[in-house]
Amino acid sequence: MSFMKKIYFDHSATTPVDAQVLGAMLPYLKNDFGNASSLHSFGQKARAGVETAREQVAKFLACQSKEIIFTSGATESNNLAILGLVRRARALDPKRKIHVITSAIEHPAVLEVCRELKKEEVEVTHLPVSRTGLVRVADIQKAIRPETILVSVMYVNNEVGTIQPIGEIGKIIQEVNVGREKQNKIYFHTDAVAAANFCDCRVDFLGVDLLSLSAHKIYGPKGVGVLFVRSGTPLLPIVFGGHQEQGMRSGTENVAGIVGMGKAVELLNQKSKIKNQNLRIKKLRDKLIKEILQKIPDAILTGDLEHRVAGNASFCFKNVEGESILLMLDMEGIAVSTGSACSSGSLEPSHVLSAMGVSPIVSHGSVRVTFGKNNTGEEINHFLKVFPGIVARLRKMSPIK
What we know:
single chain, alpha/beta, Aspartate Aminotransferase, domain 1, Aspartate Aminotransferase, domain 2, 3-stranded antiparallel sheet, 12 strands, 13% strand, globular
């Protein structure tokens, strides 16, 4: 009997909404539809849902609920963190020299913001990474200048799954800040979107002042995110028009989405369940990595195997196009991606793989397989049954040998 079920191995692009999350959201899409800024009972019911979600996220991050700002997603959260901090510093002193440190493998939602900052005469240092995609803590130390006000390094790379030493970086920044005056403090931001399902995101453990999350990467709805802003961190809003979210994010709250995010985060707080879930995911991933490297010639695992989230297996296959692999797998009912979904419309080689020293011709053969809590061993077995043949057929057709 043929395997007819569709298989989803692209959880780094988005995750399905959990049934419990959907159940929490539905009342706010039906009966409790009020505007959370309204004073009547409809509005106050909606407000209660928003504030419960705020507390749920604060518990997960081990911070105060007033330090949680809801946004439209992590792209907006990253923009608010970086632009908001830099523009506040510039507003206080228009002639001040400003320097920002980030890494060469950040998500475009950070890299493009930094590109805009350069137009505003902000200096930006893009740190290199190792061949496995790790930022070196020593490079952070070397890059810090008197005019540095912000370091932004992602917790987990969304393409290759490498976990960055955020806690170590946080300690370095805290040590540097001891010798600085308050107005010259360095603030630390991390995009934790790809980390939330797998890593400890307590903000004091990480030593961060700003942290971004996205609901749709943790079995919540699309269109809602979070920015943690440590009390005392100076930000200017980047969206204007209202008083919502403590004046930091104008616009009528997406109540159902926010409630869904709160529930999704609450489920992540079930520590023992999540630990067992991730151990099971890691076994599936390790089996897939081992067999692909054994069965397919010229297959290269990208990213750091030791410092890697459980749900990520990313490869480059020589003499074959990743997009062709994706399309042939899709014909078999299997969904994967080539690098990051946010940049998959580009014909340029992955900036992440390029920063890791992978040549453009090899990086065009990149495939990212990312696992979720509902994937099974049966699905892995089916993938391993069809995948080597797809690569072999495409290589026969390839003009590159």
